[in-house]
Amino acid sequence: MKLDDIKKLHQKKYRQSLGHFLVEGEHLVLELEKAAASNPHWKRAQLFVTSAYESWRSPWHKQVISDRQMAQLADTKTPQGILAVVPLPTPASTESANEGKAVYLHEVQDPGNLGTILRTLAWFGGMRCLLSPGSVDPYNPKVVRSSMGAIFHVPLEIDISLDALSQRYPNIACLDIGGDSLTEPGFQDHDCYLFGNEARGVPAAALTKLNAHRYTIPGAAAIESLNLASAVNMAAYELNRG
Questions:
Q1: Which class would CATH give 92-240?
Q2: For the segment 222-236, what is each residue's pLDDT rounded down to a tens digit?
């Protein structure tokens, strides 16, 4: 890919039209290499480095560029000098023989929240992440960075509507105020776990249509609600507690 096109990948519309996204920094590139060992899709990356990383051994085609050029391509203010351009995954590249359970995020907006949630799902394993239309782009550089490489290890699907969700998962749970405690028996028996937008939650009409079982994380109620990423963390822990 030409350098002028790579600069455009900071914007969602160009990530979509060009079909690529940026992976910046040594740690993330290492995580990408790990993922490429088990998923052929990630082997199609292209690496750009400054002279500081000229000796870096990589499974991908590598191009050495100047510090000035790297500063123009990178999203961070002080780039390390190593950056990969990666094709966006296709639905087929995220499929697995055992789909397992899913976490569905309805109109999640904060890149940091999504990145943290992906880290949680990667840590526990065995779950995929589904994003509704209107959610933050998971290939936004801020999401990729905050995921710390988890985005390469978690099956991820975007633009999944609530209607499609109900057809795919017959047994849905939702984390919401006023539900049963998630520590009660039965929480682990669902196929899909639904979490709402940071400010608005999930529309009540949608929960009724989905026939979703509501659960609540018990607390002292000193504050109105938990951060979205914290709620997913606790739910994922409970699901894996056995």
A1: alpha beta
A2: 566 778 999 999 999
For 125-135, how does the pLDDT look when each residue is reduced to its tens digit (9 = 90+)? Answer: 989 999 999 99
**Measured CA distances, 25 to 125, 141, 150, 192 (Å):** 24, 11, 14, 33
Fold match, 3-88 / 92-240: no
CATH class of the region 3-88:
alpha beta
Residue-range domain boundaries for the chain: 3-88, 92-240
Look up residue 151 and give its two tokens.
């985005």
pLDDT above 70 for 83: yes
Instruction: Return the structure tokens found at 18.
Output: 């060009």
